[in-house]
Write a structure and sequence with these properties.
Length: 438
């Protein structure tokens, strides 16, 4: 029961899609947005409205009322190529000097990890009113690992990873031509593994925390079409509670003021993943042109201090501070447009601005996250009446990002030392999907 936070979960990732397993991936904040090649090309504008892609069920279960008759299946795949170069200077002080930790300015290099992330969906329209669906995704994820394990920030982080899988069965009811409602369940598995150096530069001197958990939540949503050509969608993904069982391993010969040097102990903790509320709109301007928009709120402020304890004890088994995050809420704003070039080809583009829940006062070396801008483009091609393909591309760049773990920072402790540096990050994402209706 290792209690999660954005850094913890946000430190790695991925998913199983239909019958596929994902690798780790980078994303804004705690969440992985790469759930749809269709909406990737719009920077996820309009993602809670109904449309030809049933992948909108991830954000709004009511949106699957846009599915065709019979059975529709979709397979989405995203190749995520992040680059986050981290440099800085570590200065030993206090207890860190007693442990023989040398000052260092060794660069971490690119801490991002390339990833392939799949997501899969299926829907079955029983009649004009009732539609069933299921999605398999990785809703959270990120992985960070410096190119040099003995980089200057190794005492704060050496590697971080989290694996997540979410299975989301849904049902939607189309009340009439104007209103549809949808509900779903979330069955979620998460696994985390965090590593840090403590006493020396040797890569063998590594402490690790690992744990996993299964949790349950729900989704709900509504779509509203007040007039012909206009649609508004509102979707909600609930928090999911996790009670994690895990282990803490400390390198032999390392004394951190506790009884666990050179041993592995059971630990526990708990975490609630943040709620997500998505509001989208779609407006038809002409028979060939549509504009779309999205505003999304993520309740990151529920992630505060994460206390670790050993089994049968209320004390911290690691000899290091509890994980303190104190995030603010996250916000995402997107605007996009589609143009039907002809009956077979649709072109789309979009842009978005994302407000990170992390600022300099709480930014860590595990996740040097910051506000970011999205630029995207994509297309859909109707190869046959029941077969179509989607392509999407996004380029994401972040603001200049400072990391200052010094006196006054929530991660600062004299027995660890200080770290002052910066991160320069951008992400390229290429997504593709196939949609087939039986």
């Amino acid at each position: 029961m290792l209690r999660f936070n954005k850094n913890t979960i946000l430190l790695a990732s991925t998913a199983v899609a239909a019958i596929m397993v994902a690798e780790t991936a980078t994303a804004g904040g705690f969440a992985l947005r790469e759930q749809s090649a269709y909406y990737q090309g719009l920077s996820f504008a309009g993602n809670a409205t109904s449309g030809p892609s049933i992948s909108s069920m991830f954000w709004n279960p009511a949106a699957i009322t846009g599915a065709k008759d019979g059975i529709t299946v979709e397979a989405h795949n995203s190749l995520i190529i992040p680059e986050s170069d981290v440099t800085g200077t570590y200065t030993a002080q206090g207890g860190a000097q007693l442990l023989g930790r040398p000052n260092s300015s060794v660069a971490g290099g690119d801490i991002g990890v390339d990833a392939w992330v799949p997501a899969s969906y299926a829907s079955y329209r029983l009649n004009e009113q009732l539609v069933f669906g299921v999605g398999i995704n990785a809703p959270y994820g990120l992985s960070t690992k410096p190119e040099d394990a003995n980089w200057a920030g190794r005492y704060y982080s050496r590697s971080s990873s989290v694996f997540s899988i979410n299975v989301n069965p849904t049902v939607a009811y189309q009340f009439n031509d104007m209103i549809s409602f949808g509900f779903g369940a979330q069955f979620q598995y998460i696994k985390v593994d965090l590593k840090s150096a403590y006493a020396a530069s040797n890569t063998a001197e590594t402490s690790s925390v690992e744990g996993d958990s299964f949790g349950v939540g729900f989704t709900a949503g509504v779509t509203f079409k007040p007039i012909d050509g206009t649609e508004i969608g509102l979707g909600f993904r609930s928090a999911v509670g996790h009670d994690l069982d895990g282990k803490f391993s400390n390198p032999a010969g390392v004394s951190l003021g506790g009884p666990f040097a050179g041993s592995t102990v059971d630990i526990s903790g708990s975490v609630m993943t943040p709620e997500v509320l998505t509001l989208s709109a779609k407006q038809r301007l002409t028979d060939d042109i549509r504009i779309l928009g999205t505003v999304e709120w993520t309740n990151w402020s529920r992630v505060g201090t994460i206390a670790l304890s050993s089994t049968g004890s209320t004390t911290n088994p690691t000899g290091v501070p509890d994980l303190t995050f104190n995030y603010e809420d996250g916000w995402f704003f997107a605007l996009g447009a589609e143009y039907d070039w002809n009956e077979a080809l649709t072109l789309r583009a979009g842009a978005a601005y994302e407000l990170s829940p992390i600022d300099t006062d709480i930014r860590s070396t595990r996740l040097p996250d910051n506000d970011r801008i999205w630029l995207s483009a994509g297309l859909s091609y109707q190869a046959m009446q029941n077969l179509s393909f989607d392509l999407g591309y996004s380029y994401i760049f972040t603001k200049d990002t400072d990391i200052k773990i010094v006196d006054g920072h929530q991660d600062y402790k004299a027995n660890i030392g200080t770290f002052v540096g910066e991160a320069d990050a951008n992400v390229n994402i290429l997504s593709a999907s196939m949609r087939y209706t039986f």
